[in-house]
Specification:
five-stranded antiparallel sheet; alpha+beta
Length: about 170
């Protein structure tokens, strides 16, 4: 079997992972311990992020002709990709958190919603809260005025109840 026939399934796997993805983040992972890598992979998996180490040549072939093509310039050394089909900020957020804890993990660049971002851009995106957090904040801000009105009405009712009890 020719070498190219062996490599084609890997290139297709990468192509299928990045096709329609909200976010693709490239990281250097050399120097991580097995324990650190396991912790990182667990959190990424729980957030629905596909994280895998591929050969740079395989990623290069898969990225050609896609939104991820600008990442080809960074394909040297020991790289891995984190791909999310649903949450555009999850890979950047999780990887940036662990890059602060583990200096061996280094953010390189990424594609978020079709736009190329360098290391600084990915770090900025990592500070954006998740969709669930944003929805929670929105609902909290919508509930606050209603809760305040209810509290005021309750205090008025208690005060009026205390006044009538004092009269009796």
């Amino acid at each position: 079997m020719a070498k190219i026939e062996l490599k084609q399934p890997v290139v297709e796997e990468i192509s299928n992972a990045i096709k329609g993805a909200q976010s693709v983040v490239l990281v250097k992972y050399s120097g991580l311990t097995v324990e650190q890598d396991t912790i990182l992979r667990k959190e990424l998996r729980e957030s629905g992020v596909h994280y895998k180490v591929y050969k740079n040549t395989m990623m290069n072939f898969a990225f050609k002709g896609t939104d991820c093509e600008p990442l080809c310039q960074h394909l040297h050394g020991t790289n891995a990709i984190a791909v999310s089909a649903t949450d555009a900020t999850a890979p950047a957020r999780i990887l940036a958190k662990y890059a602060k804890q583990y200096p061996a993990l280094e953010l390189i660049a990424g594609i978020v919603e079709g736009d190329y971002n360098d290391k600084a851009g990915i770090e900025a995106i990592s500070n954006i809260p998740s969709r669930d957090e944003l929805i929670g904040k929105l609902l909290g801000s919508m509930q606050a005025p209603i809760a305040n009105i209810a509290r005021v009405l309750s205090q008025i009712a208690e005060k009026n109840g205390a006044d009538t009890a004092a009269e009796a």
